[in-house]
Design goal:
With 651 residues, this protein is an alpha+beta fold. The chain contains 12 helices and 39 strands.
Length: 651
């Protein structure tokens, strides 16, 4: 049973997690700071925190005026998430300081979170925030650095990069890393830094100095002047102010999360980001539907064997719609090109498309349409675009190229979410910062990119090791929330054979590695990225992909795995289970213990790497058999391999 455990000694105030393993001690001295321990081991020896305003520093010479504590047990409903609902328990300590501010701290079994709040009557300028993490030893860390070119705005990029594994003192001091960032204590314990409930405030980056076991939070300054690229009509920050935020004086600031896992398999299941986000603001969300999508851009509209010119035209999109309908795929996306991107007017469709006719054609075949657009383009025509396309029957927007997370960018995301919800439109955010729980606050935001996904193979060499990334990312990035990796490649390549080809792209790794992504990833709306022609030629795999639910997940488990090596994920939908596993470029023998099943028999369908998948990455074998909870399946994974298993309960 959870219990409230806290104590105060002088100017130090301690709070423990319900299971007693985590303890955070906040010290109100010359500058507010905390220590964090797990079973007595120091995880953060000093975390210095504060808010720098124009005329004072909140947290400096802090004097406590009031302290409140409480124990909370909460059940959270989580639509289009890795579970349908989950329970949380936490101890909370709310400390009010003289000077119209306070700090709220929560201790969960899964980690610690803190946030500042202020109670000023007038708006305030936040010059900077202090968020420092001092470590007792030079631990390994996993960081995804900004991809902005050297000398350019480091905070302006797509939040997509591979992870750099290095000691804390080996950090590149010239580059910031975007969250989440993970620290490895070499004894199974890992600490992941991220944030939640980011609203009207910039997101946090992390920088190391390359000398000390220290990480510091860093924030994009508030824009003072915007400019526009000629392509896609995209805006960008041309100049910034000398402060990070201009906000209401009475408000709460984002939660700073230090998620703690005792074993790697806990990491993809950590729910703190979702749990700490503001609850649903849109009311009824029964109209929000996820599912699979037939997608055009990755395969470059690359259909063949037809008697018309493939491209952004009616014949091509009817072909995609026919394919989606045949395979019970609920959506087709019209990606970039359905309006002239250089013009920036998404209210005007190109002459080659009759959008009302296309939507009617799709609806008659039980397929819905999602439209691509650019963040600022939608924002500039927000109400008119939402009203027009909702009336036509469009179900949502894939919104791209925000490429920043300063305060005005974050405010734009909230504007879009609210307006879209009013018109019952779903949103899939691409070119976007890591999830911070916005999908809880606005359940119509159904997915996020912020992942080094399949688009990268179109222009990346094999040196960009996606097989390594694929078994790091689920442990770290998925802690923040769902992701749109855009999988489904039917052209697959070994490490020796992989080439970056734009028009006919291939995946790194095996066919079954691709199939496994549909189970391993939290992805309530997910692409079939390859072209319909090749999917029809590979109907057996297509049928399996479309049979895997990616919404309505009742339960998710990580059966086994090691960060950077492999992962096996199991998801339950009703009485049925779906299990996916993948490895890095190392071949691997895995055992799948089915003892978690009920006592019934299950009809099993297994796709696994073929015996020649180490040389021909598309080689696979399909097996069907009866499985029970007494089985321990042996599965051989080729280098870059995977497997996918469907277990459907027999009547």
């Amino acid at each position: 049973m959870a219990c409230l455990s806290l104590h105060a000694a002088g100017n130090a105030y301690s709070l423990t997690s319900p299971n007693g393993k985590l303890e955070i001690t906040l010290t109100a001295g010359e500058q507010l700071s905390y220590t964090l321990t797990h079973d007595g081991q120091v995880l953060v020896k000093e975390g210095t925190i504060g808010l720098l305003l124009e005329d004072r520093t909140l947290g400096k010479d802090a004097r406590v005026s009031k302290r409140k504590t409480r124990l909370v047990n909460e059940e959270i409903t989580s639509p289009n998430y890795r579970v349908s609902s989950f329970a949380v328990s936490y101890n909370e300590m709310d400390i009010t300081f003289r000077g119209n501010y306070g700090v709220r701290i929560r201790a969960y079994d899964e980690g610690i979170a803190y946030r500042f709040y202020t109670t000023f009557k007038q708006p305030i300028i936040v010059k900077d925030e202090i968020a420092e993490f001092h470590f007792a030893e030079d631990h390994l860390s996993y960081r995804a650095y900004s991809t902005a070119a050297q000398g350019k705005d480091p905070y302006a990029m797509a939040f997509q990069n591979l992870y750099t594994k290095a000691k804390l003192t080996e950090a590149n001091p010239d580059r910031v890393a975007f969250l989440p960032v993970t620290i490895d204590y070499a004894n199974g314990i890992k600490l992941t830094i991220t944030e939640s409930d980011l609203e009207a405030y910039p997101g946090m980056f992390i920088r190391g100095d390359g000398k000390n076991a220290l990480l510091k939070g860093e924030f994009a300054a508030y824009p003072s002047r915007m400019d526009r690229y000629p392509w896609r009509h995209m805006t960008y920050v041309a100049e910034r102010t000398d402060y990070i935020a201009n906000v209401e004086g009475t408000r709460s600031f984002p939660w700073r999360i230090l998620a703690v896992s005792e074993k790697d398999t806990d990491m993809p299941l950590n729910n703190l980001v979702y749990a700490l986000a503001s609850p649903n603001r849109i009311g009824d969300y029964s109209w929000v539907k996820g599912g699979k999508v037939a997608w055009d851009w990755w395969n470059n509209w690359g259909i063949y064997g037809v008697d018309f010119k493939a491209g952004i035209n009616m014949q091509t999109y009817k072909y995609y719609i026919d394919f989606a309908s045949e395979n019970h795929i609920p959506y087709v996306i019209l990606d970039e090109g359905w309006y002239d991107p250089k013009g920036g007017d998404m209210l005007t469709v190109i002459p080659d498309l009759n959008l009302p006719e296309l939507i009617t054609y799709a609806n008659n075949k039980n397929v819905d349409i999602i439209l691509w657009t650019v963040f600022n383009v939608l924002d500039e025509q927000l109400e008119e675009a939402c009203r027009k396309y909702a009336a036509l029957g469009v179900k949502g927007f894939k919104v791209d190229f925000l490429d920043r997370d300063d305060q005005t960018a974050v405010e734009m995301a909230y504007r879009l979410a609210e307006a879209a919800a009013k018109h019952k439109l779903t949103l899939n955010f691409h070119g976007f910062y890591k999830p911070t729980g916005l999908n809880r606050t606005y359940p119509n935001i159904i997915n996020f990119e912020s992942v080094f996904g399949m688009e990268e193979v179109k222009w990346s060499t094999v040196a960009q090791d996606m097989m390594q990334y694929d078994v790091i990312m689920p442990y770290i990035r998925m802690m923040a929330g769902p992701l749109d990796y855009t999988p489904g490649a039917m052209r697959n390549a070994t490490k020796a054979d992989f080439k970056d080809i734009y028009n006919n792209p291939m995946s790194q790794g095996t066919r079954c590695h691709q199939l496994a992504t549909y189970i391993v990833h939290d992805s309530p709306i997910t692409m079939l990225a390859d072209n319909p022609t090749i999917y029809r030629e590979e109907q057996e795999c297509t049928d399996f992909i479309t049979s895997i639910p990616n919404t309505g997940i009742d339960e998710t488990r990580i059966l086994s795995g090691t960060l950077g090596e492999y992962i096996i994920t199991a998801r339950r939908v009703g009485d049925d289970w779906y299990i996916g596993g993948m490895t890095n470029w190392d071949k691997r023998e895995l055992e799948v213990d089915l003892s978690f099943l009920s006592g019934s028999n299950y009809e099993a369908t297994l796709f696994k790497d073929g015996v020649n998948a180490d040389r021909q990455a598309s080689d696979y074998k399909k097996e069907m058999f009866t499985a029970t909870r007494n089985d321990k399946l042996k599965v051989s994974l080729a280098p870059g391999g995977g497997f996918a298993l469907a277990l459907r309960k027999k009547n």
